């Protein structure tokens, strides 16, 4: 992990979260709601400037931003003098659009970044998503986050290449944080169940150049949708595993420390590889935020659905308590994953 990787991580996450909050901000302004504050970073506040009615602030913790809407998070007995401009007093469909706007913005960013890559083209390589202990890949010194350089058009092609050479010594070219070197490994003939012949998870990166802007946008959109569904499937597998008492899938997730390392690898290869990685992060943020969990946009949308079903709003104290518990669980989750990532560094 390098200082540059940390800086790239903070800048990338901040930009993607600010874009997310701009979605909420833009939708609220479109419906003429009062926006009390738009903040870059999180308090304590360093600087503020009052617009016509909105405070624009720069805050000390540089990990994203926030939008504070009039009548959004107060108590039920809070005095609202302008209900027509209050978030709480809007019709359900308007509140749903405002809440979903951040997710839509993150998806659009992911789509546009992927489209840019398709328009320009990017040399193809194989990203190592994970390495099984005591596998041929591990014994060869291959690590999670490495790039296997070669003309492999997809993961299936790479797997077929490995299969065709099982039991034979192979030489693979590895790029790690910009340094290129070769390793030798012998693919297993009969690998353990759930592991490949080399014992690594290959993730293809890089794309062939499309012929026009419109083809690039089309391919970018198709890829963004496909990635989003794949992210949903992965999260579903994790949830299923936890429900069945299997915590292993949870520890295959990367937290901030793991992402910093991956960003460093992507950044060392060049700006376009970094853009591709940022596109994936943006799509992950979109999918994660739409999950129907308290403290997330999807959880707040769930409360709106419950409101429509029962015919009256959920008590604000109940919603606030659920969001507080959900936030605490998310922090605990991130703490566990971060500890796992730090442990993997040693």
From TrEMBL:
<keyword id="KW-1133">Transmembrane helix</keyword>
<feature type="transmembrane region" description="Helical">
    <location>
        <begin position="96"/>
        <end position="122"/>
    </location>
</feature>
<dbReference type="GO" id="GO:0004222">
    <property type="term" value="F:metalloendopeptidase activity"/>
</dbReference>
<dbReference type="Pfam" id="PF02163">
    <property type="entry name" value="Peptidase_M50"/>
</dbReference>
<dbReference type="GO" id="GO:0006508">
    <property type="term" value="P:proteolysis"/>
</dbReference>
<keyword id="KW-0472">Membrane</keyword>
<keyword id="KW-0479">Metal-binding</keyword>
<keyword id="KW-0482">Metalloprotease</keyword>
<keyword id="KW-0862">Zinc</keyword>
<keyword id="KW-0378">Hydrolase</keyword>
<feature type="transmembrane region" description="Helical">
    <location>
        <begin position="273"/>
        <end position="296"/>
    </location>
</feature>
<feature type="domain" description="Peptidase M50">
    <location>
        <begin position="9"/>
        <end position="332"/>
    </location>
</feature>
<keyword id="KW-0812">Transmembrane</keyword>
<dbReference type="InterPro" id="IPR004387">
    <property type="entry name" value="Pept_M50_Zn"/>
</dbReference>
<dbReference type="InterPro" id="IPR008915">
    <property type="entry name" value="Peptidase_M50"/>
</dbReference>
<protein>
    <recommendedName>
        <fullName>Zinc metalloprotease</fullName>
        <ecNumber>3.4.24.-</ecNumber>
    </recommendedName>
</protein>
<comment type="similarity">
    <text>Belongs to the peptidase M50B family.</text>
</comment>
<dbReference type="GO" id="GO:0046872">
    <property type="term" value="F:metal ion binding"/>
</dbReference>
<keyword id="KW-0645">Protease</keyword>
<dbReference type="GO" id="GO:0016020">
    <property type="term" value="C:membrane"/>
</dbReference>
<dbReference type="InterPro" id="IPR036034">
    <property type="entry name" value="PDZ_sf"/>
</dbReference>
<feature type="transmembrane region" description="Helical">
    <location>
        <begin position="6"/>
        <end position="25"/>
    </location>
</feature>
<feature type="transmembrane region" description="Helical">
    <location>
        <begin position="317"/>
        <end position="339"/>
    </location>
</feature>
